[in-house]
UniProtKB/TrEMBL annotation:
This is Putative fix B protein. InterPro entries: DHS-like_NAD/FAD-binding_dom (IPR029035), ETF_a/b_N (IPR014730), ETF_a/FixB (IPR001308), ETF_asu_C (IPR014731), Rossmann-like_a/b/a_fold (IPR014729). SUPFAM superfamilies: Adenine nucleotide alpha hydrolases-like, DHS-like NAD/FAD-binding domain. Residues 38-271 form the Electron transfer flavoprotein alpha/beta-subunit N-terminal domain. GO terms for molecular function: electron transfer activity; flavin adenine dinucleotide binding. Residues 25-34 have a biased composition (Basic and acidic residues). It comes from the Archaea. Transmembrane segments: none annotated. Residues 1-34 are annotated as: Disordered.
């Protein structure tokens, strides 16, 4: 969106503002800063809070604890949860880091519908009455200062429409967050003057390679010729990258029921029937997972067959990295339709797994993939590059090419299994 600033050539950014620079123009004083708190949009399914929501709350708690220590305003972590018969979930959210929970309970909110959810989340995000109850001593409120969504299918869609409705910027698929005072000089944002933007959320996301990061900022236009405010500063967060906060049943907080305004036109999209489609691939019942990535490229058909044979020998399920699901290499239709499918993707765009043993074969270790397998108990990597990032997540590295290592490994496994066989008694 137009409010985001990321790697623009004529922008200069310094985390340590020059005290002699021209900063008369303190943006917060100039624009009347009455944006408050960090709002986290919670996801729940049939009365169960999804793990990514607890992860977002944990990171929100860490950020706002640091924020309040640095700036002394005691702003809050506010959870927003929508659904039906969900009041009992509010205390659980407080135990996991929220200072306040705003919940909207309505039969029409039982299942996510983006049009309706967008409207209700925007109503809550701009509701001054709820904000006054959250912080009675400082009721001056315009909008949330920051806002978090999950970077799953539901959260990506909802975050984009909510921020479009609120006319602010959005950074998607974020895996690192920092709040800082930044000195910015930009042709359009500041009319070329160095301006200190206080309390700016630095949002980092991996690029398409998975190994480089881009910093995204959501900044007000201070330029008098193009003056405009952009709040909340918002992002969607990759599931699995932040740790959950351990639940504390002694934590206290404020619980607010919000009565949404729902018009008939908001209900023009209806859910007639709903069923959960289970994946064709069941990772949960396998103790061992063998995953492969673009390292198969030299001999894709041969290497996939080797991986298939290895999986059979050790009774493992087969996973893949995201690029493989795009079918980048020509192989037979039978192998392609069996293994190069989205259901086998492990990572932020697929599944999160935690087997006892995880083989990473020809996988370089992009952050998106690591997020999906980092909870594996024991990781074995097969890779010719001993500097590949996956090595940092591995317990054992077998250095070599797939077509060289796997035949030896499969052969040794067969010999080992033969030695374990108990001879039959001869009558």
């Amino acid at each position: 969106m137009t409010s985001s600033l990321s790697a623009i050539p004529d922008a200069k950014l310094d985390e340590r503002p020059n005290q002699n620079a021209h900063v008369n123009d303190n943006p917060e004083k100039e624009r009347g800063d009455n944006n408050r708190h960090l709002y986290v949009v919670i996801e729940q399914e049939e009365g169960t809070i999804l793990p990514v929501s607890f992860e977002m709350l944990g990171e929100a708690r860490r950020l706002m604890d640091d924020f309040n220590h640095k700036y002394k305003p005691e702003e809050k972590v506010v959870a927003i949860i929508l659904g039906h018969n969900i009041k009992h979930l509010c205390q659980e959210l407080i135990h996991h880091g929220a200072d306040a929970v705003i919940y909207a309970d309505h039969p029409e909110l039982r299942h996510p519908r983006n049009l309706l959810y967008t409207k209700v989340v925007c109503q809550i995000a701009t509701d001054k009455e709820s904000a006054a109850r959250i912080w009675p001593s400082n009721p001056d409120f315009n909008r949330p200062r920051y806002m978090f969504f999950s970077a799953d299918d539901t959260g990506r869609h909802l975050s984009s429409t909510v921020l479009a409705e609120l006319q602010s910027g959005l950074a998607s698929d974020i895996n690192k967050l920092v709040i800082n005072d930044l000195e910015i000089r930009h042709e359009h944002k500041t009319k070329g003057k160095p301006i200190v933007y206080e309390k700016t959320l630095e949002m980092y996301r991996p690029d398409f390679s998975g190994f480089l990061w881009t910093t995204i900022l959501c900044l007000d236009n201070i330029n008098p010729e193009n003056r405009r405010k952009f709040h909340p500063q918002a992002c969607s967060i990759i599931p699995g990258v932040f740790p959950q906060m351990e639940g504390d049943t002694d934590r206290k907080g404020t619980i607010i029921e919000f009565s949404p305004t729902i018009a008939q036109e908001d209900l023009r999209i209806k859910i007639i029937n709903r069923r959960v489609i289970k994946s064709k691939v069941d990772f949960s019942n396998k103790k061992i997972i063998v995953s492969f990535g673009r390292g198969i490229k030299e001999s894709p058909e041969q290497n996939i067959k080797l991986i298939e044979n290895l999986a059979k020998e050790i009774e493992a399920e087969i996973g893949i990295s995201l690029p493989i699901s795009k079918k980048p290499y020509p192989i037979s239709e039978s192998l392609s339709s069996t293994y190069m499918i989205p259901d086998r993707v492990i990572g932020t765009s697929g599944r999160k797994v935690n087997p006892q043993v995880y083989f990473a074969i020809g996988i370089s270790g992009a952050v998106q993939h690591i997020a999906g397998m980092k909870e594996s108990e024991f990781v074995i990597s097969i890779n010719p590059d001993s500097e590949a990032p996956i090595i940092d997540e591995s317990d054992v590295l077998i250095k070599g090419k797939i077509e060289q290592v796997l035949p030896l490994l499969i052969n040794e496994l067969k010999k080992y299994k033969e030695r374990l066989q108990i001879p039959q008694e001869i009558e």
